[in-house]
Structure prediction request, 342 residues.
Amino acid sequence: MRASRRRLAVLGLTLALLTGACGGGGSAPDDSAPAAVSASERAAAAEKQLAKNTLVPLQGEPPTPELPVTVDSSDGREVTVEDASRILPLNGGVAEIVFTLGLGDHVVGRDITATFAEAEELPQVTKAHDVSAESVLSLRPTVVLADTDTGPKEAIDQIRDAGVPVVVLDPATELSDVTTRTTRIAEALGVPEAGKALNKRMNDELAAARAAVPKGSRPKVAFLYMRGSAAVYLIGGKGSGADSLVEAAGAVDAGKEAGLDKPFTPITSEALVRAQPDVILMMTKGLESVGGIDGLVQIPGIGQTPAGMNRRVVDMEDGVLLGYGPRTSLVIDILVDRIHQT
Prediction:
């Protein structure tokens, strides 16, 4: 799996609590919504916002790009961006950042992982996660945003050879990467102050989400990546992407604690017994692919863990859980509530 696609390719009380508030000192669009004060209330507000499948851009007028700018690209190049009027992000989390910065009207296409409502009508330029250079160039982008896992390489080279600036970013695999990517994207698009405002908003939201962790609760959570139809059964360890979220939500990543030093390891009964998770975390489609909780506990070893015996399974929508974008604090709010329940 490409790292960005695992996440398939994820955010006080400053969002009025997550019911649509905007950063930069602004107030919520719905000022009548009460501030959530408990983990369950925060989670309910987060679930309501995620159910809308929409983004909350920074309040105020959209920023005006100040260009040209020259930025470092993660493929070792220096890239000069002279025009941000036609932006093409080739990653769902990157697209979320661009829209939240207030530049959604400049976006001309999307990749398969950009599943939020604002992007639905945009032409898709990827096929099974592979970029089609012809589709990209047909949209006449003035700047393309990719990451080091975007491919195939030949397609990226073809886009660059056509004269389109391609800014490559490092994949986001942990919480701190969200603000780092936001800073780099904002700088590449000539709106650094908007990037600072968005980072402040996200940091405030994350601090509020973490503050709701119940004292003294440290459940062990195992992230399982499954695709039943393809017989893919993996447990996450160090660097899975989920480990950072689990820890931010005040829990222990069971795979990491059990000594799994690779992002993903095939599930075995022995690994599960060693991990002994209290809670299992999954992507929604992955859980559905094995027949829901009833099917999951029939997989060897899972039914013998505390999580399996107590049917403690938390699932979240694929594109959001490991998206590592501006909605990550919503993920933390939900995890704080659901993994600490007794």
